[in-house]
Design brief:
This protein has 10 helices and 5 strands; from the N terminus they run E-H-E-H-H-H-H-H-E-H-E-H-H-E-H. The chain is an alpha/beta fold and 219 residues long.
Length: 219
């Protein structure tokens, strides 16, 4: 079973993917982590994120182990990590270099400890259109920019990251623009994706609604 969950930042993808992976005991692949790892490593090394040859070199050398090591850095989940991920993911050659790693996971999904899983939940921006167009269930999460910015702002506050709602909102709009306008694999729902607006949903309502959809599909 392959379930893909795509959509813009703070639309509810991560919360939903994590909950579904635990409920159905499927592996969870957050494809954004790969781009965050590449982008953050470039930032830490002082590399211009528009320097394609150098960013591509990092992407080609990226491994699961390196990604996990970088994920413990304080900026990995910060706005710095998110913005750098958005910028490097707009580079066609970088996306191509990281695509096979993402696709191969669906052939033999495993949990973090290496044990085999019977299915996989993908969390990303193009998993239903590019990474796994053969997915059994495709979801595309949306929410208003204002709601998403407030969600992300509250996340940063909870983590002690200093920023303002206005900055988060502007950064999110810029990121949405890059993701939707990139030449390769722009962020958009697959033709057979179920579009879910989470603007007025709390996490529990979102999860309950999607589980009902999945159960209906499985029957």
């Amino acid at each position: 079973m392959i379930i893909t969950i795509d959509g813009p930042a703070a639309s509810g993808k991560g919360t939903l993917a994590s909950a579904l992976s635990k409920l159905y005991k499927y592996a969870y692949f957050d494809t954004g982590m790969i781009y965050r790892a590449v982008g953050l490593k470039a930032v830490l090394e002082g590399i211009d994120l528009t320097d394609e040859p150098k960013v591509l070199e990092i992407a080609k050398a990226m491994t699961f182990e390196k990604m996990m090591a970088l994920s413990s850095h304080p900026d990995f989940r910060s706005d710095i990590g998110g913005q750098s991920a958005s910028k490097v993911s707009a580079i066609t050659s970088v996306r191509a270099a990281l695509l096979k790693m993402q696709q191969d996971f669906a052939l033999s999904p495993v949990f973090a400890d290496g044990t085999k899983a019977e299915g996989v939940i993908y969390d990303g921006r193009d998993t239903g259109t590019v990474v796994c167009p053969q997915a059994d269930i495709k979801l595309f999460m949306v929410a208003s920019p204002e709601v998403r910015a407030m969600r992300r702002f509250k996340e940063f506050q909870a983590k002690g990251i200093e920023t303002t709602y206005e900055k988060v909102f502007e950064d999110m709009k810029a990121r949405d623009k890059r993701d939707s306008e990139r030449q390769t694999a722009p962020m958009k729902p697959a033709v057979d994706a179920i579009i879910i607006d989470t603007s007025d949903m709390d996490p529990k309502a979102e999860i309950d609604y999607v589980v009902s959809l999945i159960e209906s599909k499985l029957k």
